[in-house]
Amino acid sequence: MKRKFWLVLLTGLVTLSMSACAAQATPTPVDESPIRTSAVSTYVVELTQTAEALAALATPTFTPEPPTSIPAITGTPVVTVTGTVAGAACDNSQYISDVTIPDNTQMQPGEKFTKTWKVKNTGTCTWSTAYSLVYGGYADKLGAQTTALTAEVAPGQEADVSIDMVAPTKAGNYVSAWRISNAQNFPFGEFLTVVIVVR
Fold first, then answer.
1. Which of 17, 123, 133, 163 shows a CA-CA span of 20 to 30 A to 194?
2. pTM for the predicted model, two decimal places
3. pLDDT per residue over 134-153, tens digit each?
């Protein structure tokens, strides 16, 4: 009987002990959401840092400073001209003065007069009698016609050139311009003007 008691007791203790071990062997459930949240946060931070690093590589950080002064250009520009203009060096003239009929001379309607200018041959060719005075523009020819030069004019020489004109019959102020033309009918040089007042 004693033996049976001890056996029952021992069996109970073993069962109880095994129950306790079995209870300890079952793991307690753990809340994994903080772990997952932490892992996701770490991943997002790493992605953000990577994106910022890529953006820094794509965007230049160097900003050039504007110049504080503009460098001065020194030296003389060189202009090269090729070809020649017909008669440009050969034929040229300069107005020197009015010999007759100064500007704003008063005239009677229909009055005939001779206009004479002093000019200088500033070209390299001699003006021959094939050269002439030709109409150069403005309001009126004042009755004048193309007129040939009466003598040769060498380069550098001054000469008087004249043309016959007629004052208009209507009162008013009149301007007429003339030029010297070469043998090829090419006008050149400065304009020669006559300015009259008809009363």
1. 123
2. 0.56
3. 999 877 899 999 999 999 99
Tokens of 156: 């550098």
Residue 167 · residue 122 · CB < 8 Å: no
Q: How far apart are CA 85 and CA 40, in angstroms?
A: 85
Residue 104 CA to residue 83 CA, distance in Å, equals: 43
- Report which DSSP code applies to 71: P
Which three-class secondary structure state does DSSP give residue 17? helix
In CATH, what number does 93-198 get?
2.60.40.10
Domain ranges of the chain: 93-198
The single residue listed with the structure tokens 């300015």 is: 195
Of 103, 100, 104, 126, which is closest to residue 113 (Cα–Cα)? 100
Residue 92: count other Cβ atoms within 10 Å of its Cβ: 18
